[in-house]
């Protein structure tokens, strides 16, 4: 699992960067990456001075830590880079280092509080923190690492968390049963009746409490979370019944009744599952008719095309993001180069170069760094680069709209295909049952 936290740097930026870049902590400086900031502290300062509104923060420090033994230094570093690129959007200089000097591998990301693209401040707040945590969690899932949902697990023991993750926690089951009862209840009394049918004893008093069949103690609703107090339950039922119902036209997977334990144990559930399957089968067949699909081969071809289109758009987005990143960096280095070229020209003409260099050390260092980055690459003036960046941003927006549409279509097509496969298997099994015995 990985967790993230951040804090501000209000003094000694250089010391903070030097600390996270310590070779003893970063495998001899192999696990260090910078985005647009080889001379980080100077470039951070230069960008910050361009801001129209002063900020007390020199930079921000984001930490991403992993469980001991769950990842390698190289993989953690790769995840950290992807996290920084996605969270900061190619608009803020940053330095990323991966520390391996403790039992748990962790990433340090120090990033500028001011964007080098528009010189606006970063908006780090609760929403930003939640978004960063979600991005980190998604990356962890992609790399096969565990994730602990925030807030929901405060105060839980490791045994209880592990049990809930596997679906065996009795508290998780109680919450699920309450949610199900709320979703089907017309009022609070109906809710109480449904909980009793689900084998729960409900105790009313100062706090509503529930006891499952076979359990010794009651569990107060408030210990499950703020959504499970009596007041919240009443409110959830009232809001659900008050809101106009929209017909759900989404196609869901068929239930494998033969191998479903719940269906085998409950005749009522088995009856409901059969009706549910009839509805989903009808929607599946309507989808096939609407899309002129009459054979399984045609279905496979249609699914393959959607997945191919989705993969192509995903690659286009990655390519556009890389172009945006390259263009914004060129803008930054071009702006520094243009602004400091007169200082460098004066240095070249100065009789006492040593004294001039001492007085203008930062400007000359930044100019030389920018010139090095632009060597053989500068082909456009700054204004044209900005137009190109704006065009790429619009292109990404359009591609992302197509990406979301294709993602939904691909998921729907996967459900259709699995439903058709199950229907075909059921058809074959019925044919076998009708075959006469010899």
* Main β sheet profile: 5 strands, antiparallel
Secondary-structure element pattern, one letter each:
EHEHEHEEHHHHEEEHHHHHHH
Assign the CATH class of the largest domain.
Answer: Alpha Beta
Number of helices: 14
Range of helix content: 55-70%
Query: How many domains in all?
Result: 3
In the CATH hierarchy, what is the architecture of the largest domain at level 2? 2-Layer Sandwich
State the total count of DSSP E strands: 8
Oligomerization: single chain
Low-confidence stretches: 150-168
Q: Mean of the pLDDT scores?
A: 83
Bulk shape = elongated
Q: Which structural class do the helices and strands define?
A: alpha+beta
* Widest beta sheet: strand line-up: 1-3-5-4-2
Query: The CATH topology of the largest domain is what?
Result: BirA Bifunctional Protein, domain 2
* Alpha-carbon Rg, integer: 30 Å
Q: Into which percentage range does the β-strand content fall?
A: 5-15%
Q: What separation lies between the terminal Cα atoms? A: 59 Å
Task: Walk me through the structure.
- With 438 residues, the protein is α+β, with helices and mostly antiparallel strands.
- It has 3 domains: 2-142, BirA Bifunctional Protein, domain 2; 165-242, no CATH class; 297-420, Helix Hairpins (Orthogonal Bundle).
- It has 14 helices and 8 strands.
- The strands form 2 sheets. It has a 5-stranded antiparallel β-sheet, sandwiched between helices.
- A hairpin with a 5-residue loop joins strand 6 and strand 7.
- It is elongated and about 95 Å long.
- It starts with a strand and ends with a helix.
- The relative contact order is 0.08.
